[in-house]
Design a protein that fits this description.
Elements: E1 2-8, E2 11-16, E3 28-36, H1 42-45, E4 55-56, E5 61-68, E6 80-83, E7 86-87, H2 93-96, E8 107-108, E9 118-121, H3 124-127, E10 129-130, H4 140-147, H5 149-159, E11 167-171, H6 175-186, E12 191-195, H7 199-208, E13 212-214, H8 218-228, E14 234-239, H9 244-252, E15 254-262, H10 273-279, E16 282-285, H11 290-302, E17 314-317, H12 321-329, E18 336-339
Parallel strand pairs: 11-12, 11-14, 12-13, 14-15, 15-16, 17-18
Antiparallel strand pairs: 1-2, 1-4, 3-5, 3-9, 3-18, 5-6, 6-10, 7-8
Helix pairs in contact: 4-5, 4-11, 5-6, 5-11, 6-7, 8-9
Bound molecules: zinc ion.
Length: about 350
């Protein structure tokens, strides 16, 4: 089969690799209908994370089950399934508490590589959720979004306790930030402030439910959020970038007693203890337990109540993965869908 590898920063190649096989009796093999490039794939692509290439890439996937191991009972060949970036058993105490991305037996899909034609999914019973039937083609981007970018934005909004009567601010206008806007809207927030200085992203934020746009960032962004919220700061702030500047911007934009949901993968973030102590802000985040939300998200997509698939503004054949990375790196694309 064909699959994408990162050889070195900026060097993505699609090459022949072995077809995956069932290794453990809890595995499933799926034929990917679509996969995509994640904002977090850009960290190694930009050399900010070490690359020990050639590394298989990709951790977002939807597809048709081809084969299952002898222990798998929840999914069967022929079903269309959605999974997320950590395989999880969904039975251990941590999974049962809703934190499947910290499952005691978790396995990262990124190490296996979902930017490919086929994927071996470990712990298939706990990881994969089937749709009610084979979806029509126009729904596939939305189901793919549920695999990570929507699931992560959703967790950011839940962790920030977005809901009725609360003001929500979103730091970050990548796919996750934009879909955190959609999540906040669906969770009942009436006032949603998207922080973005890029016109196409502002437009999408408004389409997803943002009521205001703030173009300032850093201290000026914080001042603007306070100005819009009676000098108090927002009740709920989603941090969807992962840098020192964005994290402090999120904390400082939150009113005392408010909540920050941080889902940007942190790189070099150090929190000032004294400021945090006096901020009275709740911090909750981390790698999103997307599996917790998959049944609900699949239902919302299947019944066409949400359309998160519009976050993909570039669609390419898998063979052109390198261009997909480049377009996102240069911010010419918000998110690239790859068709195996
Ligand atoms: Zn578990």
């Amino acid at each position: 089969m064909r699959g994408a590898f990162l050889y070195a920063p900026g060097d993505v190649r699609v090459e022949e690799r072995d077809d995956p096989k069932i290794i453990e009796p809890s595995d499933a093999i799926i034929r990917l209908s679509a996969t995509c490039v994640c904002g977090s794939d850009l960290w190694p692509y930009r050399g900010i994370e070490a690359v020990e290439g050639p590394s298989p890439m990709g951790h977002e996937y939807v597809g048709i089950v081809q084969d299952v191991g002898s222990q798998v009972t929840n999914v069967k060949p022929g079903q269309f399934v959605v999974g997320s970036f950590f395989a999880s058993d969904n039975t251990c105490p941590i999974c049962q508490a809703g934190y499947q991305s910290s499952c005691l037996h978790r396995q990262p899909i990124g190490a296996i590589g979902a930017q490919a034609e086929y994927l071996r999914v470990p712990l298939a019973d706990g990881t994969l959720v089937a749709t009610p039937d084979i979806p029509s083609d126009d729904l596939i981007p939305s189901f793919l979004a549920a695999s990570d970018v929507l699931g992560t934005g959703w967790f950011g909004a839940v962790a920030a306790e977005a809901g009725p009567g609360r003001s929500v601010a979103v730091v970050g206008d990548g796919g996750v930030g934009l879909l955190a806007v959609l999540a906040a809207r669906k969770l009942g927030a009436e006032r949603i402030i998207a922080m973005s200085r890029h016109e196409p992203r502002q437009r999408l934020a408004i389409e997803f439910g943002a009521t205001e746009i703030v173009t300032e960032r850093g201290d000026a962004g914080v001042a603007r959020i306070k100005e819009l919220t009676g000098g108090l700061g927002a009740h709920s702030v989603v941090e969807a970038v992962g840098t020192q500047e964005s994290m402090l911007q999120a904390i400082r934009s939150t009113r005392p007693g408010g909540h920050v949901g941080y889902v940007g993968v942190a790189h070099g973030v150090e929190l000032p203890g004294t400021e945090l102590f006096f901020s009275h802000v709740h911090l909750h985040g981390g790698p999103a337990p997307v599996r917790r939300f998959l049944p609900e998200l699949i239902d919302l997509i299947w019944t066409r109540q949400i359309d998160p698939g519009t976050v993909f503004d570039l669609s390419l054949p898998l063979e052109q993965a390198a261009e997909g990375y480049r377009a996102m790196d240069e911010r010419r694309a918000i998110k690239t869908l790859l068709r195996p």
